[in-house]
Amino acid sequence: MFCKNTNTALFYSSIDKIPTKTWEILGCENNIYFHRDFLKSIEKNHPEITFSYIILVDDNSIPIAFSSIQIVDFFMNSIQNDFDFLKNLGRKLRILKDSKPLRLLISGNTFVSGEHGVFIKQNQDKQKVILELAKAINHFVSSNKELKNKIDAFLLKDFVNESLFITDELKTVSYNPFSVEPNMLLNINENWQNFDDYLASMKTKFRVKAKKAYSQSASIKIEEITSENIDDKVIEMTALYKKVAESSNFNLGDFNLETYKYFKEKFDDNYILKAFYLQDKLVGFMSGIINNNSLDAHFVGIDYSLNREYAIYQRMLYSYIEIAINKNLKNINFGRTASEIKSSVGAIPQDLTMYLRHKKTITNKILKLFLQRIQPTPFQQKFPFKK
């Protein structure tokens, strides 16, 4: 897919086509989500998604910002459960149709929640840069006849509250903000030297709950998944992942678990993969990545028929916490979904905002009303720690 460069933006159709010098000037690879190996692994294993990359440059043609672009088909049936009223509203307003998907151009990571779509170098006017990105995205589509006819809407995801003074500039170019499910964040207390310290910091009720989960899951064996043994497990893992994905309220795409092979090859011990066995049966797996001082939980797979009896998911949450404490990390990003149970282990919500614009002006104005109806699913926040 060809797009002519401009004075402010360079366009690439593959990670491999971005010059090494550009990566060096940007200096973005300290963050794994902007590391070429991470991005290449996702690109290589998801051929159904069109990947592109935008490099913004200054007046001297020096790279100052990077954005990962994905073009995906958003299907009506990917909106589930509590969002049914939005499907009905979308049909009435003719924003969503059963007959064909909404083709979305996304700036962000389709598979991971958080600010992993736009990197801006320090000492830049970030409000100006975000508007230049919106302009570059518009050029990318309008300069390509095929894309111009096929792209329905533009989505920039996911921004924390501290970034909104920058990203709200997008409202001046007709992007509509809306809130999504929060990222659940657990800060690791520096006094926790081991998991027992974590338990000791909890109120009795929650400490009892944790010990019960360990008792229920005592017969589960946890094994490391490595580059050498993942081929033996990936088919079963995929089946368990799909069960979890199907229960999600909102899905932008299916993750190909073959990607894990490349993550393990490239990031080794910094990529966490563990299998949960009950006797010889795989009943769950957990994944995550260590990014600087954080542990980010990625996808999990669960045998729901055994989850309640053996507390599989709850044990996974405690396993993330054990890893973070043992590796002296500062926090855990648990991601979206299952907010209440994550709060019961100490996580607090971190609000996230997305920005959406439909290419048709009238439809975009209607869309604004549609998006105002979207609210994160309410949950009862738990406070498990002693004061």
UniProtKB/TrEMBL annotation:
InterPro entries hit by this protein: Acyl_CoA_acyltransferase, FemAB-like
Domain of life: Bacteria
Molecular-function annotations in GO: transferase activity
Signal peptide location: none
Key words of the record: Transferase
Pfam family for this entry, one: FemAB_like
Record protein name field: N-acetyltransferase
